[in-house]
Design a protein that fits this description.
It contains 13 helices and 26 strands. It is an alpha/beta fold and 466 residues long. It has 3 domains: 203 residues, Rossmann fold; 102 residues, Luciferase, Domain 3 (Luciferase, domain 3, Roll), CATH 2.30.38; 86 residues, ANL, C-terminal domain (GMP Synthetase, Chain A, domain 3, 2-Layer Sandwich), CATH 3.30.300. Strands 2-1-10-9-11-12-13-14-15 form a 9-stranded mixed beta sheet. Strands 16, 17, 19, 20 and 21 form a 5-stranded antiparallel beta sheet that branches. It is globular.
């Protein structure tokens, strides 16, 4: 049987792949597929008929069971970040139409039916593949977070495409410690294992020691995690026995890529996606892996590159355009926001808002957000990412973020925020000018103690300079 083409979304929880005693382990707490299935279906019986169910998405086994229960019931699962404040939490619950909550430990402000996990249940009928699996909230540059509706069909297509690209099978052991309220940790890192049928170890916290001790074959991490692993060489070298190290959710610095290669013997796999598209691009288990490049479209996905004038941008590895995506992994729309949904598409093509380049072989490199990371300075278009890479190649720089600031003469001037020691601003500016082109050098260098980041390690550039 081809496990990646099962008509069931989670065949491991429907008895299609046998049983495994230590199938899922979260923060040291194990459960078998059979027990997880019984608890998920028992809880699901109490959710039948609801429009949506909110999940307190802490990294616990209870969260995994609650998510599986919502999926078994055919009820849209709404993962709520555990650090969400009352205003954000209330918006997510109200906007999603959630009628019950599973696993809420401390939500005194939420007036919803609270569902306790059931201890036993029989197998429920498989919901249709066009039913919403998840409503994941994503923040834009303005307004309240939008609910991204992801169908069961899209989730299955994305996971099957990655299983093919990564040669991901039931023989793997997947290890990660990522949050369970984002696509990376929840869809790839939990549902992926349950669909493929491999063992899952969620470390609770993604510490280098926990990763080293897990003895996995497939590891997921964000750049912050991989940077910390590299900072502890003993932990990094323990990953030499793994099959693949996968990095995503933010660009992996070239220096960290090279450190991982040196310490673990692995060229990490880099991939790209959004909440609205799931994962659409990736380097391959059996293919080339270049630092800073996110590879080729997975099965079922098409991409195009569009210039400022709406025409096709050249695939020359240098010309920057907006990345558009089409295919089977796309979301169904923003919940209750038809105008926002319509504005996000050009016919069947989703406008990602991300700037990218594509080379003659179809390899993709993400330059950054169109709105933040493309700096138009003195008549030139400069990608913030390449300036950041140049800055990070200087020995005094540990972290860097580059933005454009209004300038009466240039339109925008390049401003670099850096973390490091013994920073010489003039020397850094000259380093970039010599590494890239003179017009790509920062005009200002500002030394900071740390860069503002979200839970997935992405730098929040909108907060710089405040």
């Amino acid at each position: 049987m081809n496990q990646q083409r099962s008509p069931s979304l989670l065949p491991s929880l429907r008895g299609e792949l046998g049983d495994r005693a230590d199938a899922v382990r979260v923060a040291g707490e194990p459960v078998s597929w059979a027990t997880l299935s019984a608890m998920a279906n028992g809880t699901a019986a109490r959710l039948l008929g609801a429009r949506a169910v909110a999940i307190d998405a802490r990294p616990t086994l209870q969260t995994v069971i609650a998510v599986a229960a919502g999926l078994a019931a055919g009820v849209a699962v709404v993962p709520v970040p555990p650090d969400a404040g009352p205003v954000e939490r209330s918006h997510i619950i109200r906007d999603s139409g959630a009628e019950a909550v599973v696993g809420a430990a401390d939500w005194p402000d939420v007036a919803l039916a609270r569902i306790e996990l059931a201890t036993d249940g029989s197998l429920l009928a498989e919901p249709a593949d066009d039913v919403a699996a998840l409503i994941v909230y994503t923040s834009g540059t303005t307004g309240s977070p939008k609910g991204v509706v992801l169908s069961r069909r899209a989730v299955a297509a994305g996971l099957d495409g990655l299983a093919s690209a990564w040669q991901w099978t039931a023989d793997d052991t997947l290890v990660h410690g990522l949050p369970l309220f984002h696509v990376h940790g929840l869809v790839l890192g939990v549902l992926g294992a349950l669909r493929v049928g491999c063992r899952l170890v969620h470390t609770g916290k993604p510490t280098p020691a926990a990763y080293a001790a897990a003895q996995g074959s497939l590891y997921f991490g964000v750049p912050t995690v991989w940077g910390r692993v590299c900072a502890e060489p003993a932990a990094a070298t323990a990953l030499r026995s793994a099959r693949l190290l996968v990095s995503g959710s933010a660009p992996l610095p070239v220096a960290v890529f090279e450190q991982l290669r040196a310490l673990t013997g692995h060229h990490p796999v880099e991939r790209y996606g959004m909440t609205e598209t799931l994962i659409t691009l990736s380097t391959r288990a059996d293919g080339e892996r270049r630092p800073g490049w996110v590879g080729l479209p997975i099965d079922g996905v098409r991409t195009r590159l569009v210039g400022d004038d709406g025409s096709a941008a050249a695939h020359d590895g240098d010309t920057i355009g907006e990345l558009h995506v089409a295919g089977s992994t796309l979301f169904d729309g923003y919940l209750g926001r038809p105008e926002a949904t319509a504005a996000a598409f050009d016919d069947q093509w989703f406008r990602t808002g991300d700037a990218a380049v594509i080379d003659a072989d179809g390899f993709h490199r993400i330059v950054g957000r169109q709105s933040l990371d493309i700096i138009k300075t003195g008549g030139f278009k400069v990608g913030a990412g390449e300036v950041e890479t140049a800055l990070l190649s200087h020995p005094s720089v540990l972290e860097a973020a580059v933005v454009g600031a209004p300038d009466d003469d240039l339109g925008q001037r390049i401003v670099a925020y850096v973390v490091g020691s013994d920073i010489d601003a003039a020397a850094l500016i000259e380093h970039v000018a010599a590494t890239l082109s003179v017009h790509k050098r920062p005009r200002d260098v500002r030394v900071v103690d740390e860069l503002p980041r979200n839970a997935m390690g992405k730098v929040q550039k909108g907060l710089l300079g405040r």
